[in-house]
Amino acid sequence: MFQTKKNNKLMNTFLTYLFIVFGLSSIYSQDTPSLSYIKYLEYVTDNHPLLTQAYNRAQFGQANQQMARGAFDPKLTFENQQKKYNDQLYYNQSGGSISIPTWFGLSLKGDYSVNDGVFLNPEDKLPTDGLYSAGISLDASEGLWINKRMATLKKAAIIINQTQAERDLLINELVTEASLAYFNWLLAYDNYQVNVQFRNNAAKRYEGVRQRALSGDIAMIDTVESFTNVQQRILSLSESEVNLVKARLEASNYLWGEDNIPLEISENSIPISVSDLEIDAFLGIENGGLDNFYLATHPKLNILEAKVGTLKIDRSLKRASLFPDVTANFNVLQSNLDQITPINTEQYKAGVKVQLPLFLRKERGDLKITALKLSDAQLDFNFESVRIQNKVSQSVQAQRALVEQLDLSTGLVTNYSKLLIGEQQKFNAGESSLFVVISREQKLIESKIKLNTTFNKYLTNKAVLFNAMGLVIPSLEP
C-alpha cells in the first residue's frame, strides 16, 4: 500500500513536471514560421549599420582623391591696398592673377597690376594703363620629380583601392559572423529537438513501467529508476531550451530594420537546416572554393599592399628632400595687350632661390624612419600572404575530414538506434533490465548530439573558408 501511494505521488509529481516543460516548449510544437539561412542573411545585409559603414569607407576614398585633386585646381586672386591721409592719396595698389598648378612643381601664372599714388615705392611704379605679366614658376622644394602635391594625389589613388578593400573586408566579416550566429541557432534547435524526442520517450516508458509494476510483472523499484530518468530528460530539455533562447537572441543581433531599428527573431520562429550545395553557391565556395580563390585580390592583402604603396611614395618624397630646394620664376611683362605679340623677352621679371641644409640630419632621419616602416609593411604583407594561404588550405582539408566524421556519426546514430530497439525488445520480454535500456538510450542521445555538433562544425568551417578567402557574396558586390 505504501509503495502504491508512493508511486501515485511520483506520478503526480511527474505530471506536474510535464505540464511545466510542455508549457515551455509549446511554442515549437504548433505551426511555427521558419527562417532559412539565405533569407536570414538577406535580412542581415539589408539594413545592418556595419554595411552602411562599409560603403562609407569606399566613399571616403573617393572624397579623399577629390580633395587631393584640388591641389591642382586653378586659383584666382585679387588684392587691393591703399592709403589716404590728410585728403592725399599716398598709394592705391590693385592686382589680379590666375595660377594654374601642374606636375613637377610647375605653375603657369598670369596677372595684371595697376598702381597709383603720390608716395609709391619707385619699384612699384607702373605704366598708366597698368602692367600685364605671364610666365612660369618652378617650386622644387621636395625635388624635381616629386613633391607633396604629386605625392598626395598618388597616395589618394592608392587609398581608393585600400578603402574598397576595407569595405569588402567589413562585409566579409559581417556575413561570416552572422552565418556563425545562424549555425549556432540551428545547432541549439536541433539539440532541443533531440531532447524533446527523448523526454517524450522517457515519459512513455515510465507509464509502461508503472503499469507493469502495478501488475506485478516487474519490481516497483523500476518505477523510481524510470521516473528519475524522466527527471533527467526534463532537466536536459530545460537546459536546451535556455541554450535555444540564447542562440536565437544572438542571431537577432545581426537583424536591423530601417532607421537603424534593431529587430528580434520571434520566439516561435525556427531555423531551417541548409544543404551544403545551397550554402556553397550562396557564399561562392563551390568545389572547395579554390576555383574562385585569387590571393592577389584578397581584401586584407590589398589593404597591406596599399600601405606599402603609400610608404613607397613617402620614401620617394623623403629622398627628394636630400636635394637642394630650388624655386625659380620667369614672367614676361607687357603694358599693352594689343602688343602682346611678338613676345618681348627683354621685358621680364625673374628670380631664383636655392637652399640646402648643411648636415641634413632631420631629412636623413625621416628617410630612415620611413624606410623602416616600409620594411615592416612588406614583412606584414609577406606574413599575411602565407597565413591566408595556410588558413584556406586548412579549411579545405578540414572540410574533407568533417565529411568523413559526418558519415561516421550518422553510422553511430543508426547503430545505437538498432541497439536501443533490440534492448527495449529484450526488456519487454523480461530478458534485460531497465538500467541497460536507459544506458543504450543515453548512448543514442550522445551520438545524436555528436552528429548535430559535427554538422555544425561542417557548416561553421564553410563560413571560416569564406572568411579566409576574403570573398563578398555576389549580391553585395559593387
In the CATH scheme, the class of the largest domain would be Mainly Alpha
Number of DSSP E strands = 8
Reading the helices and strands in chain order gives: HEHHEEEEHHEHHEEHH
Provide a count of the helices.
Answer: 9
Helix/strand structural class: alpha+beta
Q: What is the CATH-assigned architecture of the largest domain?
A: Up-down Bundle
* Helix content class: 55-70%
Taking all Cα atoms into account, the compactness measure Rg is 40 Å
Proportion of strand residues: 5-15%
Strand order within the widest sheet? Answer: 2-3-4-5-7-8
What shape does the CA trace take?
Answer: elongated
Mean pLDDT across the residues is 85
- Please give the alpha-carbon distance between the first and last residues: 79 Å
Q: In CATH terms, what is the fold-level topology of the largest domain?
A: Outer membrane efflux proteins (OEP)
Uncertain parts: 1-29
Biggest beta-sheet profile: 6 strands, antiparallel
The count of domains is 2
- Going by CATH, the homologous superfamily of the largest domain would be Outer membrane efflux proteins (OEP)
